[in-house]
Amino acid sequence: MSGFGLATWSSRHGHALLSSMGRLARHPLATTLTVLVMALALALPLGLDLLVSNVRAATGDFSGAIGLSAYLHLEVAEERIQQLARSARQHAGVGRVEIISAAAALEQFRKDSGFGAALDALTGNPLPPVISVTPSAAASSPAEVETLRRYLAAWPEVESVQVDGDWVVRFNAILDELRELLLLAAILLGAGVVAVVGNTIRLEIDNRRAEIEVTKLVGGTNAFVRRPFLYAGTLYGLVAGLVAWLIVLLATLSLQPATSRLAQAYGSHFVLNAPEPREAALVLALGTLLGWLGAWLAAARHLAQIEPGFT
Amino acid sequence: MISFERVAKRYPNGREALSAVTLQVAPGEMVFLTGRSGAGKSTVLKLIALLERPTRGQLIVNGENTAKLPARRIPAFRRRVGVVFQEHRLLTDRPVFDNVALPLIVADVSMREIGKRVRAALDQVGLLGKERLLPLELSVGEQQRVGIARAVVSRPPILIADEPTGNLDHQLANEMMNLFRRLNEVGVTIVVATHDLLLVRESGLREIVLADGVAGATQPPLPSMQAER
């Protein structure tokens, strides 16, 4: 009678799914409100994530602005400078190394400053040779730039090291901070989603107490009784994830013209990115998982307490 | 079929509903369970449907020792005991068909088979053609019959009924009894808890009287009925 085959499995799950969907559709206002609250809680971290990645994309060119200038002592020999530059090139996290010899520096200065005649009056070259080091894009965090600075400063031939563009470094640090904050917000809001679903399912269980009692009385298993509630929670989560994605998508689309104008004003070709398919899939999966989890917690807690009785 | 051996039931609140009940119901038998309110009739029925477990003593139903049955096998056990309530306990937001189909749905019976068996059960209680109606669109007697159809649709070997005629006038009560008799004739073991002593006398069936938590006097059936059995 109850052979456990695929047909049985699909019919019992199909039954639970259909009855859950029917029930959600019968209370459109309550269902919409619950989904909306969940969707907003999911949309916030998604939007924040998009903000951070967009800002990073917009300022991506800035990492080239980070550089370290190692000013050498005046008397360091040419071969030694070449040697130092070679070992700098082999150091981890180093993108580009350039030597600016004292003569080249003087030539540059003569050209740029307009003090040419005054310089002619000097007997020697007062400018030191410089090794200019640009960290690779992957290694431009504040800590990595500081490590590199110490490495260069440790050479006895180096007089001093100057970090150029450290505002970019600080800016990146802020973005990193924001990303950590994002993770924290996502965890808190995720817990909120679980709580919202859990509470909705708990109310639903209370409303259907009589039905649950009768079902258990005629031999319904706990799994059978739980199933429609798990489906309801999962559906809530899935739809909320979808709505969250739509909210963020619409928000980015509506901001795009203004952003493009702003970017053009700065001569940039930056385009505001909408959520990628990967991010959309993630928010859908996360919503579904959290919805299921909330329903499962509520069902585990409240269904066991309902046992049929007489009169 | 049903065997109580010095069964006691004490509820968590300390009330001792049954102190030492010993009674037997043979396969295919139909008996009445009488006694004052609070004598333990409902408790006996709860124990038979495994809604409660005995505190002491041995209770065997359908060949299963209910004290030892693991929790995961309770649903399967309950599918073999049909229950009829005084206040029918139908789901008022579902049509008659869905109410009667519930025991089959929880048992994973195929949809086609469910349709056949629900109609057969409704035919048995004289409600064929009312599948699509909501319970509240039916009369009290009809609602009670839907409850019986739900209790027998999965063809359980045992049927228990708690005051099934409590809300019915004498004529409807008699019709209800005739329905139980017909089910009994096809082999269902039936235990009916009732206050209605007139109904019991008229039936001539065995009566088990509960008093002070003890199944003291088991009235033998009238001689004529005994011979018939």
The dominant shape of chain A is elongated
- Fraction of residues in β-strands of chain A: 5-15%
Number of domains of chain B: 2
Main beta sheet of chain A, described?
Answer: 4 strands, antiparallel
Radius of gyration of chain B: 17 Å
Count of DSSP-assigned helices of chain B: 8
Q: What is the CATH C-level name of the largest domain in chain B?
A: Alpha Beta
Largest sheet of chain B: 6 strands, mixed
Can you tell me about this structure?
The complex is a heterodimer of chains A (311) and B (229). Chain A is an alpha+beta fold and 311 residues long. Chain A has two domains: 6-60 and 179-302, no CATH class; 67-164, Alpha-Beta Plaits. Chain A has ten helices and four strands, in the order H-H-E-H-E-H-H-E-H-E-H-H-H-H. Chain A has a four-stranded antiparallel sheet with strand order 2-3-1-4. In chain A, helix 7 (166-207) packs antiparallel against helix 9. Chain B has 229 residues and is of the alpha/beta class. In chain B, a hairpin with a 5-residue loop joins strand 1 (2-10) and strand 2. In chain B, 45% of the residues are buried. Mean pLDDT of chain B is 86; it is low at 222-229. The A-B interface holds A 1-2, 7-8, 11-12, 15, 210-211, 213-222, 224, 307-311 and B 42, 45-46, 49, 51, 72, 75-79, 83, 85-87, 89, 91, 102-103, 105-111, 150, 154, 162-163.
